[in-house]
């Protein structure tokens, strides 16, 4: 329990954008799990630690921890852990601009997610996949993936995933040239956010909304969104 609870606290901190605190929780969880000889909690600590390191830009350390988490997940036959670790490895590649490689990891993650049938995990993986396609300019693919992700997020009542998928859908519509619909979707994504959702996510939604406002000829509204996003960046 001491190790497991620290891993849970780390996950909660990651969702809130508190990556340094999440890393500290995982470090303690890993130490306790090793002392207790608990391989499953060791694997979980490494997976969450890798996710925190990815967000902090520590790519080498993140890759090492995520690969070790995948190795242990295979040994433990833990499909959820393997899928989430693969998804984070994909995101790690995406942050470095290697989007095609990222898609390979996301495909592996989606296979695990669909195997165990967890809508939240499927939705999250679809969102990551959509982000890779968005970076590659494939707006039709983004639209299809984000729409499916949004439906699953609504099904399980996950507001953060719902906001993420709606924002991606808005970005796809922007890329396809439907700026009014893109604005509507980004505003809906913003309205879905709460005080408990991630500040980095709100920053991204506001940046996308600002870009769409600018493209639609509304510079004052665009500037307002960029200013709010900048203030959020200063508070994280």
Q: Care to give the gist of this entry?
A:
The chain is mainly α. Helices cover 86% and strands 0% of the residues. The chain has helices at 2-15, 19-36, 39-55, 59-76, 79-95, 99-116, 119-135, 139-156, 159-176, 179-192, 199-215, 219-235.
What attributes characterize this protein structure?
single chain; 236 residues; mainly alpha; globular
Can you put this structure into words, describing what you see?
This protein is mainly alpha-helical and 236 residues long. It is built from 12 helices and no strands. It has helices at 2-15, 19-36, 39-55, 59-76, 79-95, 99-116, 119-135, 139-156, 159-176, 179-192, 199-215, 219-235. Helix 6 runs antiparallel to helix 7 (119-135), helix 8 (139-156) packs antiparallel against helix 9 (159-176) and helix 9 runs parallel beside helix 11 (199-215).
């Amino acid at each position: 329990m001491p190790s497991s609870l620290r891993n849970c606290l780390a996950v909660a901190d990651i969702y809130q954008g508190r990556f340094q605190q999440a890393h500290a929780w995982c470090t303690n969880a890993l130490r306790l799990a090793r002392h207790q000889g608990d391989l499953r909690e060791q694997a979980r600590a490494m997976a969450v630690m890798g996710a925190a390191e990815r967000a902090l830009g520590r790519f080498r350390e993140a890759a090492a921890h995520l690969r070790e988490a995948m190795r242990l997940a295979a040994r433990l036959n833990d499909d959820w852990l393997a899928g989430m670790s693969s998804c984070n490895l994909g995101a790690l590649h995406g942050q470095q601009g290697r989007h095609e490689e990222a898609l390979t990891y996301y495909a592996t993650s989606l296979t695990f997610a669909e195997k165990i049938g967890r809508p939240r995990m499927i939705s999250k993986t679809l969102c990551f996949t959509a982000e890779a396609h968005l970076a590659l300019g494939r707006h039709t693919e983004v639209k299809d993936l984000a729409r499916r992700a949004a439906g699953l997020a609504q099904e399980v009542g996950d507001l953060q995933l719902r906001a993420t998928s709606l924002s991606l859908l808005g970005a796809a519509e922007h890329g396809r040239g439907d700026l009014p619909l893109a604005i509507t979707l980004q505003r809906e994504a913003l309205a879905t956010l709460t005080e408990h959702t991630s500040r980095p996510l709100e920053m991204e939604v506001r940046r996308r909304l600002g870009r769409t406002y600018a493209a639609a000829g509304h510079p004052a509204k665009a500037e307002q969104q960029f200013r709010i996003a900048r203030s959020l960046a200063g508070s994280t």
